[in-house]
Specification:
It is found in: Cell inner membrane. This is General secretion pathway protein GspL. By secondary structure, the chain is an alpha+beta fold. Helix content is 36%, strand content 22%.
């Protein structure tokens, strides 16, 4: 599994924008980082791989509200409720901002709400999506959670100091005035600084800072439960599953670690194809042998047959002809058919006309009722004859002649 964390630029993004990014393969340690256009960002690989968009601390504002009772997080009415609660605290119109509720928020309790420019966020996510790096989550660079901590970030031209805790997130220009506005921290509280501004932070704030690269801080932020992809930016579970499946299938097709599995799959398919071909060849050979046996039986029994077209039909004709020549009675003979018909007809029923074609007998003027026809047909079937009615004509033929 790998995760690509992309820091969203503070200006409106375009195809020419360079994006700062960090890559982690285990969700904790930084494995790669850099800056590049969106189209050249690394593609995360492996099952569960994802792209996480990180919102810089300067782009977010935090507000604490009391959620109304009956408003369940995820409810269609939630945004309307947040607009009403924050309308007087926002500098922009509520339609122009995006709201995101803290994870685990409950109705009737106090909760943090992150607020950022809606159009800016939409534009950044659309550029990533167009580059084939759609974000599955959106996380804040700093969030109001955990024990009090201090971080000095940015570059020497625009240094920023950030104080974060469960009581909120405060970011200020790193200068003498910040010292009076920052909350007091305990001696052992985390104090981290990016290498470019670590010396300045220690000089201005008169505190000792440990070094931490910005990409590592982004990886840590991506490991939290926060997800600002809410309301119109929400990523449904189904969409996330499809993205993971697509990423996983691409990993299986391309990654070197999957090469043995790919070869094994190809070998398995080839073995199955070979087995199917062998089975089909065996079945064809068996069927051909049976056909040959039938043809041989016909030509051995009736040597006068020189050309075999349909062996069963030809054999049936030859047997019928042999019976006629030798005088052996057959179920097809007229007297046999007449005898069978006379044995099953209802008392007093006599055909008005008889017509025999050599294979079937047509008895006219019968006009049997449905019940009588059913009984006659059943009795003739037991004798080996098939029966059908064509108006008042009863057609009788030996079963082997049909």
């Amino acid at each position: 599994m790998s995760t690509l964390v992309v820091s969203l630029p503070l200006e409106n993004a375009s195809n020419a924008t360079e994006w700062a990014y960090a890559v982690t393969t285990d969700g904790r340690a930084l494995s790669d980082h850099g800056r590049t256009p969106a189209a050249l960002l690394p593609q995360p690989r492996g099952p569960g791989a994802e792209v996480v968009a990180l919102v810089p601390v300067q782009a977010l504002a935090w507000h604490r509200v009391d959620l109304p009772k009956g408003i369940v997080p995820g409810s269609p009415r939630l945004r309307t409720a947040l607009e009403g609660l924050l309308e007087e605290q926002l500098l922009d119109d509520t339609e122009a901002v995006h709201f995101a509720l803290q994870p685990g928020a409950r109705a009737g309790e106090r909760a943090w709400v992150a607020v950022c420019d809606r159009a800016w966020l939409r534009n950044a996510l659309q550029v990533l999506d167009a580059a084939g790096r759609p974000a599955s989550r959106i996380v804040p660079e700093f969030a109001p959670e955990g024990p009090p901590a201090l971080a000095a970030i940015g570059d020497p031209e625009q240094p920023v100091v950030v104080a974060s805790s469960e009581e909120g997130v405060l970011n200020l220009p790193l200068g003498p005035t910040a010292l009076a506005l920052l909350p007091a921290l305990a001696e052992g509280a985390p104090r981290l600084a990016e290498p470019a501004v670590a010396g300045l932070a220690e000089q201005v704030l008169q505190q000792k800072f440990a070094l931490q690269q910005a990409p590592q801080r982004w990886v840590d932020a991506a490991a939290t439960r926060w997800d600002l992809a809410q309301f119109e930016f929400a990523s449904s579970p189904r969409a996330r599953t499809l993205r993971k499946l697509a990423t996983g299938s691409g990993e299986v097709l391309r990654a070197a670690s999957w090469r043995p599995a790919r070869w094994a799959a190809v070998a398995l398919v080839l073995v199955h194809l070979a087995g199917l071909n062998a089975w089909a060849w065996k079945e064809r050979a068996s069927l051909s042998a049976k056909h040959e046996a039938v043809r041989r039986t016909l030509t051995d029994t009736f040597p006068q047959v020189k050309v075999v077209v349909d062996a069963p039909v030809q054999m049936e004709r030859e047997v019928a002809a042999l019976r006629q020549q030798t005088g052996v009675a057959s179920a097809r003979d007229l007297d046999a058919v007449l005898g069978a018909l006379a044995a099953v007809l209802p008392p007093g029923r006599v055909p008005a006309s008889l017509q025999y074609s050599g294979s079937e007998l047509r008895a006219g003027g019968m006009a049997l009722s449905p019940n009588e026809l059913e009984q006659v047909s059943a009795q003739l079937k037991a004798l080996g004859y098939g029966t059908s009615a064509e108006g008042s004509t009863l057609v009788v033929a030996a079963e082997d002649a049909r």
